[in-house]
Amino acid sequence: MERGDHKPLLDESSSWSYQDNNALVEEGDTLRYRSRKKPFSWKAPAIVLGFEFLESIAYSGISLNLVVYLADVLHGTTASNAANVDTWNGTTFLAPVLGAFLADTYLGKYKTIAISVILYLLGMLTITLSAMIPSLQPASCNGTSCPAATEFQYAVFFIALYLIAIGTGGVKSALMPLGADQYDETNPDEAQKKQSFFSLFFVAVNLGVFIAGTVVVWIQQNIAWGLGFGISLACLVVATVGFFVGTPTYRVQMPTGSPLKSVVRVLIVAFKKRNLELPKDSALLYEGEMGSGTEWQHKLDHTDGFRCLDKAAVMASPYSTDLSPATPWLSCTVTQVEEVKILVRMVPIWLTCIFYSASMCQTATTFLQQGVLMNSTIGSLSIPAASLSSIEVIFMMIFVVIQDQIIIPICRKRFQNPSGLTQLQRMGIGRFLVIFSMAAAAGIETWRLSAYKDNKRLSILWQVPQFLILAWSDVFCGIALLEFFYGEAPESMRSLCSAFSFLAISLGYYLNSFVVTFVAGITKSVDGKGWLPADLNMGHLDYYFWLWAGISAINFVVFVALSWNYTHKKVVLK
């Protein structure tokens, strides 16, 4: 069969059903899938966006105030509370990788979400009950004496907490790819709508965080923890009901088996054929049947680069071009080879995302520590340093509208590009802007230290510019990051590749923690105080911000070099 050809009917060996209008038909004893998708419905992505908004409130309602609950209610020590929160956060960001693997390999995105949300609900229900039932909480503090929670009380709480981690990991791994799957990327109108979907998904996440951080957290600390957790539970219940009610509207793709098996196969076959010569004409490389269960995917055209991998698709004796089960490890198609090339090209881009995420972590650490030392009184109002993170969310939502309604349309006309700016261009702008945010923070810190020496306190409002620039950076880079890892990924690995954006965030936290510890230790050994002493008025937090400005600048240069030579995947339109 020539490259680009396809069959109208495809054998389907999987037991999963493909939820599409008349898509799964029975012919004799064989189930076959027609490669015709149901018409686009706005209801499906709307349900996904609503789900993400409510899930973001539910998850943030637990995560944002977790360390306070451990201290005030369970009476844990400072060290154990920090360790427990860090461990749980690490699990929460790693869980999407496992969930994505299951979604791409065995369950599919829909079933992964359905199973995960049940575990999620069970965890949310348990943690809500643990905050309401007195026997599941230690006794209240008596003066300075605070009885610690019993092993049973801790066990109930942490079982619930890790059920939430597993549940949200499964949801995060598959929900965004499921929403993006509703759009046919070969249809120009739907492809443009998909770009807006990613922007709205970004807004849904951050709006949920904003509401949880302002309303739910306040209720937890000022009214009742049980009520606050109950609101999170109610949001997840509504999201779950809406998700299942919308089942008939979804375009759902079935899993095609382990994508990692295909990757390993290409590497092994290429090694076996390492001594063969490549044909001068890439059309002579093998592109035939891709095996049962994968024909619904688009084929990929050959690209230059990593030519050693092309040898896996060379047609030459004694290596068979038969892809039957009898010889599965002797032949690969051009599409399978190109999928491996995609992953190899994406890895360096992904590594720069870790450094970018580490710089963004300053909002929850050093930016907050800087704000605590500033004058937070504005007139008769007192603005907590942590509130500026909520202001950043407001800025981000405003910038999303500006980007989608003004910047992108102008760029579409200027560059004659349907996307306006490419994903890599937007990611580059985000990385460029973060340099100025770190520089602004450094400048403000130098000014603050100078004011402190004169017995003055700088207003916390001077932090707004660094948060504003960081918000704009996040809008450019955050949305493009979602699009890039979904759009560039092999179709059989879209959930897994999308989940790697969460892994980059997780590793960014670890990198930031390492840099803080390393810098504090090295600089303390030089002058006895260091840049980051317990009393920052005696240190040089400004030097630390300049360090991150330098790291961000190097990361930007590396990213530009990688982007300049990046080869996008080429889909063969059927």
Automatic annotation (TrEMBL):
Belongs to the major facilitator superfamily. Proton-dependent oligopeptide transporter (POT/PTR) (TC 2.A.17) family. This is Protein NRT1/ PTR FAMILY 5.1. It is found in: Membrane. GO terms for biological process: oligopeptide transport. It is a multi-pass membrane protein. Gene3D superfamilies: MFS general substrate transporter like domains. The keyword Cytoplasm does not apply. GO terms for cellular component: membrane. One of its GO terms (molecular function) is transmembrane transporter activity. It holds the Pfam family PTR2. Keywords: Membrane, Transmembrane, Transmembrane helix. The chain crosses the membrane at residues 44-68, 88-107, 114-134, 154-175, 196-219, 225-245, 349-368, 388-408, 429-447, 467-487, 499-523, 543-564.
